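In this supplementary section we document a worked example of the pipeline. Step one takes a protein sequence of length 164 as its only input; no multiple sequence alignment statistics are reported here. Step two produces a three-dimensional model, which step three serialises into structure tokens for compact storage. The input and output of this example are shown verbatim.
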Amino acid sequence: MKNKFILLILPPTFLVFVMIGCSQKQEQISKETNQISLPKDTPKQIAPKEEQKNLSDELPFDCNLNTGIQCLEYDVKPDYIRLLLRNTLGTEISLSEISIGNCKSKLDRQFKADDLTNIELSGCTNGKTGDKFSSDIILKYAALDESGNEKEHIAMGKLITEVG
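The serialised model returned by step three reads:
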């Protein structure tokens, strides 16, 4: 079992070092100098550089928007993106524009409450098949306010997947 280290820095005069997974090894903490004495065989690095993973490699696949518009399905190809969206806002909206990564498209589409709509973007540069894809989604739409006037809105979200 590899040793794991947790270093907590609390108020200036108190430093805590916890070593997890060590058998009968004691670390000495000098409260006066805030120095830690480690065993001689303690590694200087948590993991060798070649074993360290990029956080973006660990991201789960996801498609989400921060409003009442749900992303139910998505597909990303090297030059194409497709989203299947559901309007859960409870009112009809008018979609005007979408932007995902370097793909942008004008839309002129009515989107009734609880309906589904398929949005396809082509001419994109999304990487090669097998590459990780992570990009912001910006969807512009209009909805009627309480006075019956059309008001512009922006739904923002994230698309994280693999280029297929």
